[in-house]
Design goal:
By secondary structure, the protein is an alpha+beta fold. The chain is built from 2 helices and 5 strands; from the N terminus they run H-E-E-E-E-E-H.
């Protein structure tokens, strides 16, 4: 027969390691993970778009000639820690 502690541990699940995903928006694409926006790729205004994709991830920004390159730049910035750590954060 299972003990009380074994029964309580059986009901708990380990946190899942979810992967970030791209979501298409209105004139933009956003990179999300667990409800937190990690980065975006934006186009210009509808009638004035100049063919440049502008991306932003954390404190890094840039431009690219095509969507695939811009998305790859956002993913690399996120993978290599694009956001600056808080100076006065107690958990840092």
């Amino acid at each position: 027969m299972a003990t009380k502690s074994a029964k309580s541990q059986a009901g708990k699940r380990a946190p899942r390691n979810t992967r970030p995903f791209w979501e298409r928006g209105y004139f933009s694409h956003s990179y999300w993970k667990r409800g937190k926006k990690l980065g975006t790729v934006k186009l210009g205004p509808k009638g004035e778009w100049d063919g440049v994709y502008r991306w932003e991830a954390g404190h890094h920004i840039g431009e690219a000639n095509n969507l695939a390159t811009a998305k790859r730049a956002v993913e690399q910035a996120v993978d290599f820690g694009a956001s600056q750590m808080g100076l006065f954060d107690a958990n840092a």
